[in-house]
Write a structure and sequence with these properties.
Blueprint (H helix, E strand, L loop, with lengths): L1 E9 L3 E8 L5 E5 L10 E10 L11 E9 L3 E11 L9 E10 L1
Parallel strand pairs: 1-7
Antiparallel strand pairs: 2-5, 3-6, 4-5, 6-7
């Protein structure tokens, strides 16, 4: 699976990017900086994880991973994220996401 999202921000503005993530399975989204492009145009100022389920004891309930991305300079950034277990280094990611961020004046 491959998820695609696109955002436009001005320099100095931030956008919150969220992806569904199920931490109870050991999977999480990780930035693939080698595949990403234009990382100089943005900075990731904050990131975290939010449970969507109010029932704390629901195993396997998906949550959300989120990143706050700030526009730094005019240009296009493509963030490639891989959904994988951190210990499975030789395995292809279960899912991938491409987040395009257009930074404008």
């Amino acid at each position: 699976g491959r998820q695609v999202q696109e955002y436009t921000v001005t320099v100095g503005q931030t956008v919150r990017v969220t992806l569904v993530s199920n931490r109870t399975t050991g999977f999480e989204w990780a930035l693939n900086s080698a595949a990403s492009r234009g990382l100089n145009h943005v900075s990731i100022t904050e990131s975290g994880y939010a449970d969507t389920s109010t029932e704390k004891d629901v195993m396997g309930a998906p949550g959300r991973q989120w990143w706050i991305v700030r526009g730094v300079s005019v240009g296009t950034t493509r963030l490639h994220l891989d959904y994988r277990r951190s210990w499975e280094t030789d395995t292809a990611p279960a899912e991938q996401a491409v987040i395009t961020i257009n930074v404008t004046k």
